[in-house]
Amino acid sequence: MAPQRDSDPIAEKRALRAELRERRRIRSQHERDAATEGLTRQLIALTSTLGPSALSCYLATRDEPETRPFLSWAVEQGIRVLLPVSRDDGLLDWAPYDSDDEGLDVIGMPVPTTELLGPIAVNDVGLLLVPAAAVDRSGMRLGWGRGYFDKTLGSMDRRPPVFAVVYDSEVHDALPREAHDQGVDGVVTPSGILRFD
């Protein structure tokens, strides 16, 4: 779905998010399992190429591309993994991933139950893997509308490489955008890695 001239990006985003949520919701378990296998392979390849000693990622919800097998691999490799924890003020705290236990944050997203670190903890990572509803071929990321990652990415002085994680069908030619939207350096899907200039 490409934005149209003189359109309302807020309404377009809302409609596109609803469509993408529904597509994710009806994805079969077989499709999810195949996507998890491919995505894990691609995330390992990206991380192995970039070689960060620390990275940030997220714990997937039921409908998101699954990240837990990759996170387990990263911890086994000795890579420090930080996961986002939503705050009431619209910012993100971070918590180390230890794969032992999970809870829910203020908006109901899965989070680790380890110590809570402040928003600046993410400044020490060498790779940011962020959730998205979709990404376009210019690198524009469509989030889920709460702005947590746009605020985080927009506030970083030294941004490491940022890659959105989506299903293959969620890479679009163009997406509606607003002034506050933050782009990404690349996208990881179950079938590959796409980098943007």
TrEMBL record:
Q: Where is substrate annotated to bind?
A: 59, 64
Do the record's keywords include Chaperone?
Answer: no
Q: Which cofactor does it need?
A: Mg(2+)
In the UniProt record, does the keyword Cytoplasm occur?
Answer: no
Q: Which SUPFAM superfamilies match?
A: NagB/RpiA/CoA transferase-like (SSF100950)
Offer one Pfam family short name for this entry: 5-FTHF_cyc-lig
* InterPro entries reported in the protein's UniProt record: FTHF_cligase, FTHF_cligase-like_sf, NagB/RpiA_transferase-like
Substrates-to-products reaction catalysed? (6S)-5-formyl-5,6,7,8-tetrahydrofolate + ATP = (6R)-5,10-methenyltetrahydrofolate + ADP + phosphate
Question: Which GO BP annotation is one of this protein's?
Answer: folic acid-containing compound biosynthetic process
Q: Which UniProt keywords apply?
A: ATP-binding, Ligase, Magnesium, Metal-binding, Nucleotide-binding
Q: Which superkingdom, per the lineage?
A: Bacteria
Q: Which GO terms describe its molecular function?
A: 5-formyltetrahydrofolate cyclo-ligase activity; ATP binding; metal ion binding
Tell me which residues bind ATP. 13-17
**According to the UniProt entry, what is the EC number of this protein?**
6.3.3.2
Family assignment?
Belongs to the 5-formyltetrahydrofolate cyclo-ligase family.
NCBIfam families reported in the protein's UniProt record: MTHFS_bact
Q: What is this protein called?
A: 5-formyltetrahydrofolate cyclo-ligase
Species annotation: Microcella frigidaquae
Q: What is the lineage of its organism?
A: Bacteria, Bacillati, Actinomycetota, Actinomycetes, Micrococcales
